[in-house]
Amino acid sequence: MDFFKSSKQKAASSPPPTTTTIEKEPVHDPILVVQKDYQPMSVPPVDDAQAQKLRQLRTHVDTIMLPESDAYHLNEKGFLTDATLHRYMRARKWDFEAAKTMLEATIHWRRDFKPDLLDPTYIRPEAETGKMYYNGFDLAGRPLWIMRPRHQNSKDNERQIKHIVFCLERGIRLMPAGVETIDIIIDFKGALASHHPSLATSKKFLEILSNHYPERLGYALIVKSPWFFLTSFKLVSPFIDPVTRAKIKFVVEKRGDNADVKRDASELAYLPDYIPEDQIETEFYGERHFSFDIDTYWSRLLELTGDPHKIIDY
Prior knowledge:
The protein has eleven helices and six strands. It is of the alpha/beta class and 314 residues long. The protein folds into two domains: 48-113, Helicase, Ruva Protein, domain 3 (Orthogonal Bundle); 121-305, CATH 3.40.525.10.
């Protein structure tokens, strides 16, 4: 009897069980339309000498543009906007001959590769796992291109490259007025060295981004970088252009956090300083419980950027 009495008294004096925190249901709809209060970065005005170089470049490209009878004429015309010419001149620090050579190379590459006409049906198998997708915009209205190497699902180098180019093109189509760049968020959580793309694929990606999409990168935000990335980064860092190098940031969970004392504060990024807090995924220390769903994402992306294609002014 004493035993039962003791048990009852014990139960009566025990505190009520704590309520378990219930996680929010994940959302599957990606944010592919920019928030109304974004503040695009302004492009410095050109001086008279720069304006003259832009006119020279325009005169030149008009002489080499495809004729109207060519099926790809409208695509090329949409690409060769004044804004495009401006980006190529900026990329080559207003060296006319260097910019002209670079732009000509891109014109010929686009005629051959036709990056804006890549077939979504062909690309979709690469996108199934959510290893690359768009979701959200930064405070300046730049689309956020999310990359998760742990979801690598293919060894088809050719289709991997086309998937990357497809994403670049679709990101440009998501850009709101006044925005010319995208941000890349690379989430290395759970990534192994085996998930890393081949050296050939990585080099090809950097070559295409540098040579055919100049002045298109806003920030590259690195989350939970593993040893193999840090090792590679240390090796190539001295050879990266200082302007590009300054765009690479390592994400911290809290403002002012510097767990890696070897890093300068300028190399670190607290995401709410860059991205609206309601758009930051939980994987990036935010509160938006987003779960990638290929059917939802793919239909929404094509609805906004063209199904299968959409000619735009670049």
